[in-house]
């Protein structure tokens, strides 16, 4: 088995640029100089390793992980599930996936969120899990509501779940957002539209998955995540440069 | 026509948004949900080496502190080994080398405690100067920003570091050097990160 090597170059045209004027907050927070490209060293091809001691089994169940005993949050019961893969199509096992979201009314349990929709006493809004040996993960939660935000005066975020993924290398670290099939707010959102290509935007929309649903109980959405792939070092790199 | 390559494409990044703390540091968002919050202890109790505190601000293009940022740190132990199967060698029991910190919501100051990392192996030959890899996410940052913190007192190692030397503009290298001082018997390194404008920090495409 060849030794795993450095990561494939990140396709920066698929990601949003730093400066996206219609997402106003990016204007003062975007570096003006170009990023300096590094060939990977040990610092980039390694990353933190997590295990089952780090989390509790209930952490991926947002319906139960903050609810009072015998109660549950208001909202549409959903499962969000899928696989974490790399660009070679291989599953990424045992990797940490963290999620956070607003409640069904579009309100976050956060001291900085002052939206008038109420806090749900039975909903925390965060979860985490490790992928299994096939790269599979799942969360159970309630579908988040849309919420207004200050950008233009009448901007609304489509329903979304924020996701944080580690992979096996610090250079694979990724935060993204998962949207839901059929939401008319997706195409109006300045944050979605920071992503230049329609095809890449579409890759953030989870598909309604009737087969993954639990009849009379919970409806499912499928959301696969792709992290950067790694070369196999078939030949030793030339010892030039660094 | 040619044969089709069957690679997948990386999922695009989206901003971590203003409520990143709920997901990644819920205690700081004002509620207790997990038994263990991850990332508050970088080095663990058994790590050898010099105990240090690292602190700073993230400053935006208007010169104002960014008060809703989250930083992650990834570093080697004092022997220069990362806690990873390909990390170069063994690390102390309990050393993870990874941490996560948010800013004070009022002042924007952030700080973490750790041990000073050792030199690490270079890409192919040579060594890299001691450094901490940092990843910065926040509202308004569309793709997490990667940078490196180097140490002021490692003059010789810094001068030979392959990554610092790849930065064409010598005066920009200074943006990656943390300033050392001593306060109440503790070693403190100051590392302010400027997202934009004069003395903009060097960010890497890793
Ligand atoms: Fe959000």
From TrEMBL, chain A:
Residues 8-40 form the Protocatechuate 3,4-dioxygenase beta subunit N-terminal domain. InterPro entries: Intradiol_dOase_C, Intradiol_dOase_core, Intradiol_RC_Dioxygenase, PCDO_beta_N, Protocat_dOase_b. One of its GO terms (biological process) is 3,4-dihydroxybenzoate catabolic process. Belongs to the intradiol ring-cleavage dioxygenase family. Gene3D superfamilies: Aromatic compound dioxygenase (2.60.130.10). Keywords: Dioxygenase, Oxidoreductase. This is Protocatechuate 3,4-dioxygenase subunit beta. One of its GO terms (molecular function) is protocatechuate 3,4-dioxygenase activity. The gene is pcaH. It comes from Actibacterium pelagium. The lineage of its organism: Bacteria, Pseudomonadati, Pseudomonadota, Alphaproteobacteria, Rhodobacterales.
From TrEMBL, chain B:
Residues 46-197 form the Intradiol ring-cleavage dioxygenases domain. Pfam families: Dioxygenase_C (PF00775). Keywords: Dioxygenase, Oxidoreductase. CDD domains: 3_4-PCD_alpha. One of its GO terms (molecular function) is protocatechuate 3,4-dioxygenase activity. InterPro entries: Intradiol_dOase_C, Intradiol_dOase_core, Intradiol_RC_Dioxygenase, Protocat_dOase_a. Belongs to the intradiol ring-cleavage dioxygenase family. This is Protocatechuate 3,4-dioxygenase subunit alpha. It comes from Actibacterium pelagium.
